[in-house]
């Protein structure tokens, strides 16, 4: 399968109208193609995605500027860090937060070095900025905000369960990724 980048950028733009979380696709792109695309191409493609994202967010803010609270910076990012800090002071909430992905995140973070796939280990680096981003703009008690990362976490967890010998079927080479 050969990826046609112009289609990707169109779909990226359309998806950005639906959710600001598309900014994390830029990180996915950088981590997947880091050793495949030239640094120049990485910078151009990442910059193009950032510009598409910013232009759409500014256009939406201008379009809805007369709506209550929509045209302000706080409407772009309803900063919730203070609420999340207060929520985390309750010990039961720490347990609840740990339970996302069926507690699979804990072993994935602890044993990530046992995952054979360099690509998958590299993609796990998206989790810290994602959690920090959600800490700033999402409400932690709404555990659904973490759903976008479920496939990544569960794939990593599956690799840990099946063991290193059976993971060989999940390791992609640069040549296989280049074909995408």
Q: Short summary of the structure?
A:
With 180 residues, the protein is an all-alpha fold. It contains eleven helices and no strands.
User: Helix and strand succession?
Assistant: HHHHHHHHHHH
How many angstroms separate the termini?
5 Å
The whole-angstrom Rg is 19 Å
Number of discrete helical segments: 11
Provide the structure class. mainly alpha
- Estimate the helix proportion, in percent: 55-70%
β-sheet strand percentage: under 5%
Shape: flat
Residue ranges: pLDDT <50 for 5 or more in a row? none
Task: Describe the sheet with the most strands.
Answer: none
Number of strands: 0
Residue-averaged pLDDT: 82
Structure commentary:
- By secondary structure, the chain is mainly alpha-helical.
- The chain has helices at residues 5-18, 23-33, 39-63, 73-76, 81-88, 91-98, 105-111, 118-123, 127-137, 150-166, 174-178.
- Helix 1 packs parallel to helix 3.
- It is flat.
Task: Kindly list the characteristics that best describe this protein.
11 helices; 180 residues; mainly alpha; single chain
Show the helix and strand layout.
Layout: H1 5-18, H2 23-33, H3 39-63, H4 73-76, H5 81-88, H6 91-98, H7 105-111, H8 118-123, H9 127-137, H10 150-166, H11 174-178
